[in-house]
From TrEMBL:
Domain N-acetyltransferase as annotated: residue spans: 2-141
Superkingdom: Bacteria
Gene3D superfamilies membership: 3.40.630.30
UniProt-recorded name of the protein: GNAT family N-acetyltransferase
InterPro entries assigned: Acyl_CoA_acyltransferase, GNAT_dom
Pfam families from the UniProt entry: Acetyltransf_1
């Protein structure tokens, strides 16, 4: 059973620890704190452990946008990422929900497709030689 709840400042160190980018990019730590402070960050808990977090924003042309889904290395393949995406589909307050991931991130592409997202387009020039793939889903509020 996966429980999703809003992240709190008390979760900050835990989220930094499970984030694979935060250890090498100080900017990510600040971003995690900002996501928590603005109330758009959610954690997925299984048993007693927070094993993943996700961010749902509304900055993408006024639509819901999954900015981040990060599952800790020791918690992968346990349904936490899917639980976050499904929660965001239900929680999203706009009719359209978008998400994106790099072309190289096969796991996230599979997760989004399994959750009913479909390809919406590509954005080049964000990361060198690794285009961003944009996905689309209707939210539960369409």
């Amino acid at each position: 059973m996966v429980e999703i709840r809003a992240a709190t400042v008390a979760d900050y160190e835990l989220l930094v620890a499970l984030d694979t980018v935060a250890s090498c990019e100080p900017g990510r730590r600040a971003q995690i704190r900002q996501w928590i402070d603005t109330g758009c960050c959610y954690v997925a808990r299984t048993g007693e452990s927070v094993g993943a977090y996700g961010v749902l924003g509304y900055h993408f042309f006024g639509n819901g946008f999954i900015e981040m889904v990060m599952v800790g290395e020791g918690f992968r393949r346990q349904g936490l990422g899917m639980a976050l995406v499904r929660d965001f589909q239900a929680r999203c307050t706009t009719p359209k929900l978008f998400a994106s991931t790099n072309l190289s991130n096969q796991r996230m592409q599979e997760l989004l497709k399994s959750a009913g997202f479909r390809l919406s387009g590509f954005i080049d020039n964000l990361d060198d030689n690794d285009p961003e793939i944009v996905f689309f889903s209707h939210s539960m509020h369409h």
